[in-house]
Amino acid sequence: MTVVGVLAGILIVAVVAVGQLGNRVTGTLVDPGFAYPASITDGSNLGPVDAPVTLEVFEDYQCPVCAQHSLDVEPSIVNKYVTSGQLRIVHHDISLLGRGGPSDPNDESTITAKGAYCADQQGLYWPYAHWIYNNQDGENVGGFRRERVVQIAVAAGVDEAAFNTCLDSPEATADVTETTQMALDLAINSTPTLRINGGELVRTLMGVSDLSAAIDQALAASGAGASPTTAP
């Protein structure tokens, strides 16, 4: 399945690879096949800070449904709302599904979330996130052991030495610990969990049409009006 969107001269092509996930612990990594333009990225966020609607996304990199959101649903939402300046997306990478928690450097949810922090330090958060999601291989079975996470990160374009140094840094550990605790304080116990403009938590995967309807409702409430119709 291919998602193609054009707005304001920006082309985003998303190759939906969720059906290809798995069986990659020892196999070849697979390129997610799309990238967001630098003009709409802001660290782990997408879109302008003054957008009338903010969509928060709480995800665990081991979560297969989170991969569906990031590789399938989100690109269409980006095409429809972010590129037009109506929506800001804020990602929160948390450690829920692992077996050791944020304090365990070998926990597979923790190391991938720390990797997102470290990729962000190099300006490569989004390539890293998409490469990680597109190369999942089960939960807590070694698919995200450290050496493979590093291999995926390098494929996404990070500098390996700097990435490894960052993974061992207290700053990376603190970032994951604090972000995960924030989620727990909100009673988030599953991923993906979504929140629009600080409202009610949505603890399930929303398809493009349902999420678009929720965003349109928030736009109307803000006085900004609904998004113009675009191809999903």
Short description:
The chain is α+β, with helices and mostly antiparallel strands.
What does this structure look like?
With 232 residues, the protein is an alpha+beta fold. It has a single domain (40-222), classed as 3-Layer(aba) Sandwich (Glutaredoxin), CATH 3.40.30. It contains 7 helices and 8 strands, in the order E-E-E-E-E-H-E-H-H-H-H-H-E-E-H. The chain has helices spanning 64-82, 108-121, 125-133, 146-156, 160-167, 170-185, 208-222, and strands spanning 2-7, 10-15, 41-42, 45-46, 53-59, 87-93, 193-196, 201-202. The strands form 2 sheets. A 6-stranded mixed β-sheet has the order 3-4-6-5-7-8, with helices on both faces. Strands 1-2 form a two-stranded antiparallel sheet. Helix 2 runs antiparallel to helix 3 and helix 3 crosses helix 4. The chain starts with a strand and ends in a 10-residue tail after the last helix. The relative contact order is 0.18.
Largest sheet geometry? 6 strands, mixed
Question: pLDDT average, as an integer?
Answer: 88
Q: The CATH topology, please?
A: Glutaredoxin
Strand content: 15-25%
Count of alpha/pi helices: 7
Can you tell me the CATH superfamily? Glutaredoxin
Q: What's the CATH architecture?
A: 3-Layer(aba) Sandwich
Strand order of the largest sheet: 3-4-6-5-7-8
| Structural class computed from helices and strand pairing | alpha+beta
The CA-CA distance between the termini, in Å, is 12 Å
Any idea what the radius of gyration is?
Answer: 17 Å
User: What's the helix-strand series?
Assistant: EEEEEHEHHHHHEEH
User: Helix share of residues?
Assistant: 25-40%
What general form does the structure show?
Answer: globular
The counted number of beta strands is 8
| Uncertain regions spanning at least 5 consecutive residues | 1-26
CATH class: Alpha Beta
The tally of domains stands at 1
